[in-house]
Amino acid sequence: MSSSSPQQTGSSVSAFLSTLIINLIVFCVFVIIFVVAKRKYHRVYEPRSVVDTVPENLRTEKQPKGAFSWLTMLLKQPTPYTIEKVGVDGYFFLRYLQMFVVVGLISGVFLWPILFSVDATGGGSSNGFDIISYSHNTHKWRTFAHLFCSWVFFGCVMFVIYRELVFYTSFRHALQTSPLYSSLPYSRTLMVDNVPDDLLDTAAISKLFPAANKVYIPRETKKLQKMLKKRAKLAGKIEGGVSKVLCKAVKLRNKAEKKHKPIPEPADDIHAYFKDKKLPTYRDKPIIGKKKQLLTDGFEELGDYNQKVAKLQSEYPDGEHKKQGVVFIQFPNHMELQRAYQAVPFCDQLKRSRRFTGMAPEDVIWENVDVGFAVRNSKKTAASSLLTATIIYWSIPVAVVGCISNINYLTSKVHFLRFINNMPKKLMGIITGILPTVALAVLMSLLPPFIRKMGKVGGCLTVQQVERWTQQWYFAFQVVQVFIVTTLASAASSVVPKILNDPSSAMSMLAQYLPPASNFYICYMLLQGLSISSGALAQLVGLILSFVLGPLLDKTPRKKWNRFNNLSAPSWGTTYANYGLFTVILLCYGVISPIIIAFVVIAYAMIYVAFLYNLTYVNDHSYDARGRNYPLALFEVFVGLYLAEICLTGLFVMAKNWPAVILEAIFIGFTVCVHLYFRYLFEKVIDTVPMGAIREVDLGESGAYPVKDLGRKQIKIEGQNFFVDADSPNERKLSDDEKKSTNSAGSSPTAGNPFNESLNNDVETSAGAAAKKILSPTSFKGRVKDFFHPRRSLGFQYARSILPARWMEACSKEIADNVDYGTPEVVADEPQLWIPRDSYGLSTHFIENADGKFSLSDENAIVDQKAKAQYTGLPPDYEPKLAY
């Protein structure tokens, strides 16, 4: 193999040094901003401590003194505290980061001594980082070191995936059987789509699922939806317009008093301050609509909307409006919900139906509720095709970015680029190091909103489903664009001149130059680990929104109240996909260029610290997915494994080490088998709770939880035996004990059910009795033994032991009873408008004009001495968040 040129090495080293220096400077600046600003701006840096509307159980204590004392405090907190404060979804994302920090450290300790010595003495003439990469090795048979190291490395990763899937499944079962979660209405409600017309009836559903105590069948509300949107738009214009003229009027009066000019009279008449043509106007249709007076015509029109909406709402649910093909079935307890959930796949009439549970009414994508099976499939196909095409054509700008990282290699053949060779090394380092990584980050940030929109177009029914869709597609974008296209573009651009001179050497040269392409990812990891993580701590966006955009954009009490009280929340689909790419880079280059392990570990560790802080002190909890994005991310790790193994196989082919090629191909087959086996083991039990888990919790039956298969057999048997009437296989009959269970959320039928005999035969003794405390072994030998027995050490009992104490109590009656899965448009309330109160009676005059038409209030809001709207308390339509 030919060696790297001095120019190549110089470029890679200068790029690394330039990237390191610039990112270190950015890191230091951001950290200084964080340390200094967080002492003063508590709303930006610890809103979970100062915002009164944050639910009590999510509020955090004031941070201890010291720039980073919070980190020590949080790292010392017990797991239940972390789970409660950051949420289940946040906890599992932190666990994901933490897991690969540990994987990276252990793999580095194992791989570096072997591979560094093999590669460094490989006989090549490379310099810089390339000396300790695969490209420096010129000895054919030394590649066996890379082969066997990859086996150990990838095998360890697969075992870690297995451990984490065992833990997540056990945790999910323990979570959903906890007193709090099992009592939530979301845990007792089943949504089924693609329901045939003959089942869209309360009596038919009750016959199929007799334990159900509430059945909601949404109806078509397109006309009502359209009117509600118009009403909301007009209400927003009125609220903003009235607030604006109030502040202007007070400003004019203050100015007149200050300059001793005539004061507008009467003080409470807006026409004394403005001529009619100066008062706010609106159009009922954009551009072509007739211009109307907002403070007169708008008031009348909003009143008319309220009457029309109320009339339409009164026609539901007994009107002739079309029933939509979805039903929401609420059960008296979690056990009956699980029975029905497990039975749906075995119902002939619901063969095409999907089933969902754990979603709040606000989590439902209501515009997709009325989409049938055929239409949904066609829309999903169209959305997937469009995203696939986007992946293909997005590779063009990404390839350009990849070429920039090695642009100096093209100058020898592309003559108009030769001026680049005259640039100073420091500037060249910035161009090839900083510019590509920043450009790539910007390119990829444009995609998530588009992918999320395609998820809704494609027929996703819940926000949780949309986020999983986003995670899958954005991860695909990341792998294809940021890894495959960028790597190939970077590697290909570095050998273009030699390939042009000798086309037959194309494959061998790409194999040689693929490892040096890791230099781009070293720069990428520096950007993510130093600049991005510190930027997340510095909260620059929060500072800008609070002190620049906020004062410019927020002119009404409601907007200012929302700005202060509404906390941002993470989007887990985007977040997992972003950092899942790091894992792909770690796996693919861990053997080819092992030095990258250090930079990936640093990036993961720094991002872990940033997320630990923000999830505890800054971010709100988003939709509750109960950690469901985590197992999806674990299965996505196999993508990195496949790519890494294929890359190694290609390198062995180029080295003509055929035994290594065969052995690596066998290992690829082994990886496929492991992947399929994990899917077989876990996919059926992740979203479903076996009856043994409920029995063990509700009845205290020690050993009822099936440790051996995590409940897979129990789930299958329960579903098969749900419909017990031989004459009517899709008609469900309750046993006497089950009838009793419908009257008590905590009772569990244990007799008269054909499931029980199979259950008793299948149950295997769990790690300990439900009342016993789970003790971790203190000896090193015991910990090692537990590591290799995750069903025992990370099982159901352990998962229950780390749940927050607050979750050992059922939810409040307010939460349990005040959740309605009826069509939201049918129960939508009239908007309550909020304006500031002035001292001259103008706001009172507006309220009198609105009386009988719509609700207008000036409570808890004022126009201050500077003639600006301010809120002094809660909005008139405020409802406390039902947190659990």
From TrEMBL:
Q: What is the topology of this protein in the membrane according to its UniProt annotation?
A: Multi-pass membrane protein
Q: Which InterPro entries match?
A: Csc1-like, CSC1/OSCA1-like_7TM, CSC1/OSCA1-like_cyt, CSC1/OSCA1-like_N, PHM7_ext
All copies of the CSC1/OSCA1-like 7TM region domain together span 380-652
Where do transmembrane segments lie in this chain?
Answer: 12-37, 93-115, 143-162, 386-407, 427-447, 473-499, 519-552, 573-592, 598-618, 630-652, 658-678
Its main subcellular localisation, reduced to a broad class, is membrane
What subcellular compartments does it reside in?
Membrane
Q: What is a single Pfam family found in this protein's UniProt entry?
A: PHM7_ext
Named from the GO MF annotations, one term is: calcium-activated cation channel activity
Domain CSC1/OSCA1-like cytosolic: start-end pairs? 187-368
Cite the entry's keywords alphabetically: Membrane, Transmembrane, Transmembrane helix, Transport
Asked whether the keyword Transport is assigned, the reply is: yes
Biased amino acid composition, Basic and acidic residues: 729-741
UniProt-annotated stretches for the region Disordered: 727-761
Q: Name one GO cellular component term.
A: plasma membrane
Q: Where is the composition biased (Polar residues)?
A: 742-761
Domain CSC1/OSCA1-like N-terminal transmembrane, chain residue ranges per copy = 15-164
10TM putative phosphate transporter extracellular tail domain: from which residue to which, for each copy?
A: 787-877
Family from the record: Belongs to the CSC1 (TC 1.A.17) family.
What name goes with this protein? DUF221-domain-containing protein
